[in-house]
């Protein structure tokens, strides 16, 4: 249990700067997700609701943080409320004192009391055992799909140890547009979202809407996303992506692939538009094995790369979630945008 010198309380708005300092001390400095604007976007502007935030404090100074970010899934024609376990931080001076387990236990109780159905997250291999001890179940590692663009550079990648994080950002040109420009005529996406819901069948997937897409891809600070579209109305197909640099390579993260009912034959052209918009070495995507999205990506030249995806774990809180939550990744329909950043 946590030492008696520490107290547990809810997060207050006045804690913001102290909590960000705690995150930097505990997890390190990453420019895009340790800023005030990113914190506000992530925990208070989320269309699914304000995050559940609990603190361990010494006096009034935060020494531990447990954040459950609101989320919502759709499955079998109904909605499932969820929270996402993110931003766990413990001050170096209080590690191994029970802060993590105590904060997590209290946050889980709060979520259950509010009627939340499910908790999920993508822990790393070091933190996964701790979650399993607290009742989480390991679902698997969603497979990544990769499309090489410049194979020679990929072959040399193991020899390239350069950290290119300080290089100029990759800025796509035509035919790509910022996601905000795509959403300016958001009514054109409504039939595509409906069709994607149908294509997902009975798999659990994020409850997507134009409001969600606007928050996730147009409003996020410091991480510009772009979009390409082929066709219009119900025949449209849309790709939302983020250019990135990784280990000296230029990467395109295909965060969302939205397929209209007559659009699957245009995906090759859509992927070609993405490639032509930015100079990159490869594309990376995720779609569950056997889904229409994975089939069209495979036909477009993507290759499955097993055992490289993030770890995915869940904990059902309600009887309905326990009955309908799959324990293998094939029961989920997550996009790369669902798995990255958070």
Task: Describe the model.
By secondary structure, the protein is an alpha+beta fold. The protein has 2 domains: 134 residues, Aminopeptidase (3-Layer(aba) Sandwich), CATH 3.40.630.30; 165 residues, 3-Layer(aba) Sandwich (Aminopeptidase). The chain is built from 12 helices and 15 strands. The strands form 2 sheets. Strands 1, 2, 3, 4, 5, 6, 9 and 15 form an 8-stranded mixed beta sheet that branches. Strand 10 and strand 11 form a beta hairpin. The chain is globular and about 60 Å long. It starts with 6 loop residues before the first strand and ends with a helix. The model has no long low-confidence stretch (mean pLDDT 88).
Give the name of the CATH architecture of the largest domain. Answer: 3-Layer(aba) Sandwich
Report the CATH topology name of the largest domain: Aminopeptidase
* Number of helical stretches of at least 4 residues: 12
Our count of domains comes out at: 2
The averaged pLDDT comes out at 88
CATH class membership of the largest domain:
Alpha Beta
Radius of gyration: 21 Å
Low-confidence blocks of residues: none
Could you tell me the number of beta strands? 15
Whole-Å distance between the termini?
28 Å
Structural class determined from secondary elements: alpha+beta
* Helix and strand element order: EHHEEEHEHEEHEHHEHEEEHEHEEHH
Tell me the name of the CATH homologous superfamily of the largest domain: Gcn5-related N-acetyltransferase (GNAT)
State which percent range the strand residues make up.
25-35%
Task: Give the helix proportion (percent range).
Answer: 25-40%
């Amino acid at each position: 249990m946590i030492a008696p010198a520490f107290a547990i309380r809810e997060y207050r708005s006045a804690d913001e700067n102290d909590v960000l300092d705690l995150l930097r001390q505990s997890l390190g400095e990453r420019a895009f997700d340790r800023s005030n604007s990113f914190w506000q976007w992530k925990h208070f502007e989320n269309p699914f609701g304000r995050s559940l935030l609990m603190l361990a404090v010494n006096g009034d100074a935060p020494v531990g943080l447990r954040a459950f970010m609101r989320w919502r899934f759709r499955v079998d024609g109904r909605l499932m409320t969820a929270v996402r376990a993110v931003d766990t931080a413990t001050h170096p001076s209080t590690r191994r004192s029970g802060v993590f387990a105590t904060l997590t236990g209290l946050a889980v109780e709060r979520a259950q009391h509010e009627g939340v159905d499910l908790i999920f997250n993508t822990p790393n291999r070091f933190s996964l055992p701790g979650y399993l001890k607290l009742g989480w179940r390991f679902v698997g590692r969603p497979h990544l799909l990769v499309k090489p663009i410049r194979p020679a550079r990929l072959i040399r990648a193991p020899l390239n140890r350069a950290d290119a994080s300080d290089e100029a950002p990759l800025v796509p040109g035509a035919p790509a547009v910022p996601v905000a420009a795509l959403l300016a005529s958001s009514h054109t996406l409504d039939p595509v979202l409906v069709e994607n819901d149908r294509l997902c069948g009975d798999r659990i997937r994020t409850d997507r809407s134009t409001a969600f897409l606007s928050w996730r891809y147009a409003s996020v600070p410091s991480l510009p996303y772009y979009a390409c579209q082929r066709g219009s109305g119900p025949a449209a197909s849309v790709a939302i992506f983020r250019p990135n640099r990784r280990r000296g390579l230029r990467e395109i993260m295909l965060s969302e692939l939205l397929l209209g009912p007559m659009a699957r034959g245009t995906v090759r052209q859509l992927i070609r538009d993405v490639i032509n918009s930015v100079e990159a070495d490869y594309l990376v995507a995720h779609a569950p094995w056997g889904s229409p999205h994975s089939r069209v990506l495979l036909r477009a030249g993507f290759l499955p790369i097993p055992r490289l995806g993030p770890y995915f774990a869940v904990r059902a809180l309600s009887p309905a979630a326990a009955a309908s939550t799959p324990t293998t990744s094939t029961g989920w329909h997550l996009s790369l945008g669902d798995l990255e950043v958070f």
